[in-house]
Amino acid sequence: MVPYITGILVPLLFTLVIHNTNRRKKRGLPVDVGGEPGYAIRNHRFSSPKTSAWEGVSTLAELFDESCKQHHDKPLLGTRKLIAREIEVTEDGRSFEKLHLGEYEWLTYGRTFEAVCNFASGLMQLGHSRNERAAIFADTREEWFIALQGCFRRNITVVTIYASLGEEALCHSLNETEVTTVICGQKEMKKLVDISRQLDTVKRVIYMDDELSSNVSLVDGRWAVTSFASVEVLGRENPVDPDLPLPADTAVIMYTSGSTGMPKGVMMTHRNILATVSAVMTIVPRLDKRDVYLAYLPLAHILELMAENIMVAIGCSIGYGSPLTLTDTSNKIKGGTKGDASVLQPTLLTAVPAILDRVRDGVRKKVDAKGGLSKKLFEFAYARRLAAINGSWFGAWGLEKLLWNFLVFRKIQAILGGRIRYMLSGGAPLSGDTQRFINICFGAPIGQGYGLTETCAGGSFTEFDDTSVGRVGAPLPCSFIKLIDWPEGGYQISDKPMPRGEIVIGGPNVTVGYFKNEAKTNEVYKVDERGMRWFYTGDIGQFHGDGCLEIIDRKKDIVKLQHGEYVSLGKVESALIVSPYVDSIMLHVDPFHSYCVALVVASQPAVQDWAVKQGIRFNDFSEVCSKPETLKEVHGSLVQAAKKARLEKFEIPAKIKLLSEPWTPESGLVTAALKLKRDAIRKAFAEELSKLYTS
């Protein structure tokens, strides 16, 4: 009996000791820095910012070259074969495209290197010189990555543009950077042709798909239009020696998603991007060439661009997918066939909070639908795993985790292929509820990062063994993070129990500035007396005792009500979006009123299920959303979520407008990273917002 008890107690005690040690671990340390006075922290492992993790590698072109030599025969880029494309028509007459996709077909590192060299040479043969800029305007795919590396091989600056960008912003981005060559997909080609008369400098277009857009004849004689495959053939037959960049050369001008006004072009050098790649490589453990990464986020976003360069540095495989084909139940996947994750079975995944929130809501819906014993078993297993992660005595034993994974969570994990061992979340704050849910159901830690386009996604990152939620970790090895006083908002570094203030990031990952926008560059970028470059983020943070950062506010999101109360829009929205009835939400504050209101995009499955259970009759979803009883139910759910988050009464929306249509990048109401475009939403729903205040 004694050996049996010992066999249980020893692992339990060991787990608790490790857990408590991790809680006390110093992850960031105070550091003396120059510039504006503040409270600064560095990574606990490095006293000075890291620039490169590899000797002799100082640019992304050199990194790609070295990795291809080292992993020559290993698969690098994978794309699923298209078997069939079908149109399904629903009972109400709406049509939807459905895809039947096959297995992944792979290019090795060696073959990818050949494709990159051929594309680089072909680009020169088309007449594109190194002094001209090329733009990539397409969804994430293997040709995107090949084009990027091909441009780097000839020291051509790449302008990255979201595939979902509107016409005005697209014209602005291409004209401002004086792009001469655009590399795009078929649907993006159609957009380009539609605005061709407004584009001043474009001379040639390279299209990635087999088919051309139907309106391409409209640019005959003005643009040279060539297929991606033809450029590769041209380069293979007429090879050109590389013209490799220097670390200080501009690699990318990345246009931000334009959540406020016109997008700004952030200028990134090879040194900037390599610093963040090196930093993440240093602190994420056990990354190696056996890993498989599922790429589906926009490569025009710094998060995905950084992730794919990290994967190349590791020597792992990148399989391409899309948000609409990600899982077996995704919108574009033909019924009875498999989504990208099921086929690829990735081990690594990057996600934005909006996608993880939807995964969580989808799982909860299925659990609730099953009900009975199945639901009770899930809730019991979830509670046990939650106790383990939180360091409680019961449920901390590792073998119990294996048991619950086998009995309960295995089917949930199969949604993303069943082999995920690590996820990275960025782009926006991830709610603690979602983070815990993903931790438990998918059995994998989430590294929540904080960074901006202006810092090449580098800022802070949660370490592998940090089980806390709501924080974004300690500074990356490439960065110093400093808090400075913001008296107007009531945040100061002398605050107790934690120093608080505006977040300022310094290090080699801080970019050069905004293209052709010196005034804005000088406003938010500063160089101190020691030569360190700092970026003023406008975000408000606080440092915990272990040196980890928590984002608590944003200067632009703080609005004053009629009687002087300050409301933080982002903070309130993060608290309310946990309601199962909410897909998206935007809080609105009018300084001439004493209360706030909200536009709520309803979660169709949750709201419809509730309506059916209540016996409410309806013809379509918009009718459900317009009913007073639905409005009352959703508003009550928001009030409940607000109270749970301990919001003040004036922070809780007094009235809401329930919307049936989702906000998408295509609608122009959210960015490609699914961030709210507040100005666009306010304009689109000006009448509805006015009625909320007058009714």
From TrEMBL:
Reading the lineage from the top rank, the first entry is Eukaryota
Transmembrane segments in this chain: where? none
Family indicated by similarity: Belongs to the ATP-dependent AMP-binding enzyme family.
Q: Which GO terms describe its cellular component?
A: endoplasmic reticulum; membrane
Q: Which reaction does it catalyse?
A: a long-chain fatty acid + ATP + CoA = a long-chain fatty acyl-CoA + AMP + diphosphate
In the record, what terms sit under GO molecular function? ATP binding; long-chain fatty acid-CoA ligase activity
Would the keyword Cell cycle turn up in this protein's UniProt record? no
**Pfam families in the record, alphabetically?**
AMP-binding
Q: What is the lineage of its organism?
A: Eukaryota, Viridiplantae, Streptophyta, Embryophyta, Tracheophyta
- Give the matching InterPro entries: AMP-binding_CS, AMP-dep_synth/lig_dom, ANL_N_sf
Write the record's keywords in alphabetical order, separated by commas. Answer: ATP-binding, Ligase, Nucleotide-binding
Naturally occurring in which organism (per UniProt): Nepenthes gracilis
Q: What is this protein called?
A: AMP-dependent synthetase/ligase domain-containing protein
Q: Where is the AMP-dependent synthetase/ligase domain?
A: 98-515
Q: Which PROSITE patterns match?
A: AMP_BINDING
